[in-house]
Design a protein that fits this description.
By secondary structure, this protein is mainly alpha-helical. The protein has two domains: 51 residues; 240 residues, MetI-like fold (Orthogonal Bundle). α3 crosses α10. 24% of the residues are buried.
Length: 311
């Protein structure tokens, strides 16, 4: 008797599990394409790159597979002067771009948040810089910064701000600054539209109460606008840092990492190791370092979000 009851209970449990699985099968089928895409085109390349970074993999042994050499690629990378230059340029490039993009983007968002004629038209025009392909933008600014026929030198000389044309992209002192200005122009609309969307979601009654209490514009900004925009600004900063830190297109088009490594950045350094020197192991090490840095930035963002929610 007890055996029959046990068998029936087992059959009932098996039926319940099958029933639940059959009910959830459509859900699994819906997410299967996305999961397969993430697995094949995101997780697998990342895992393979990490494995390659521990191998002596070059063009000569690419087919047979590289020999496992442990942390040798990382040791050689750290000892290379070019890596230090690339890391320093990447940090300077990212910090300068993010600072000016957020500040100018915020000012434009404040302006476009006002009620005036053709406001939507100007919002649309601002997005053109961000929507333009980077190849076109890089080529355009390369011409604008040209030493002989560039428009920027023409206006600076015409306004008597400089005595002679500046070789913006051909000398170490100005090449990185020219690339930074180019990327600032590209990223301003992205920051502006996100900050503008966050501003329009702010409660108006809080500002009315502050106006009644006699709060100044600075007090309103510091005590109300900035705290309410903090979550959106954190997202903008994280996305901007990730997007800017992995710069490659603009560097390739405008300077090619030169002159004399003045615009050498980590992603371009990894590209040169892989497709110029054909040292895929060393390139994988550089890519892994970039991945670790960006993961740390994302973890800092998650920590700040959790702390803000706790408060």
């Amino acid at each position: 008797m007890n055996g029959r009851v046990a068998r029936k209970s087992s059959q009932l449990g098996t039926y319940t599990v099958k029933s639940r699985f059959s009910q959830k099968m459509p859900q699994y089928l819906f997410i299967a394409p996305a999961a397969l895409f993430v697995l094949l085109f995101m997780l697998y390349p990342i895992a393979y790159n990490i494995v390659v970074s521990f191998q002596d993999l070059t063009l000569m042994n690419l087919r047979s597979g590289g020999e496992f050499i442990g942390l040798q690629n990382y040791k050689e990378m750290i000892q290379t002067e070019k890596f230090g230059i690339a890391l320093k340029n990447t940090v300077i490039y990212t910090a300068a771009c993010i600072f000016f993009q957020v500040i100018i983007g915020y000012l434009l968002a404040v302006f476009l948040n006002q009620d005036f004629p053709f406001r939507n038209f100007f919002r649309s025009i601002m997005l053109l810089a961000w929507m333009t392909p980077l190849v076109i933008t890089g080529t355009l600014f390369k011409w604008l910064f040209d030493v002989d026929h560039g428009v920027i030198n023409y206006f600076l000389v015409s306004l008597h701000l400089i005595d002679a044309p500046i070789n913006w992209l051909g000398q170490q002192d100005t090449a990185l600054a020219a690339v930074i200005m180019t990327n600032i122009w590209i990223g301003i609309p992205f920051n502006m539209i996100l900050i503008l969307a966050a501003m329009q979601a702010l409660p108006s009654d809080v500002y009315e109460a502050a106006k009644v209490d006699g709060a100044s514009r600075f007090q309103t900004f510091w005590r109300i606008t900035l705290p309410l925009l903090k979550p959106a600004l954190l997202i903008i900063l994280v996305l901007g840092i990730i997007y800017t830190f992995k710069v490659f297109d603009i560097i390739l088009i405008m300077t090619g990492g030169g002159p004399v490594n003045a615009t050498q950045v980590l992603p371009f350094y990894g590209y040169e190791l892989a497709f110029v020197n054909f040292d895929f192991g060393a390139s994988g090490a550089v890519a892994t370092v970039i991945l670790v840095i960006l993961i740390c930035i994302a973890l800092i963002y998650l920590y700040l979000i959790k702390r803000e929610e706790a408060e």
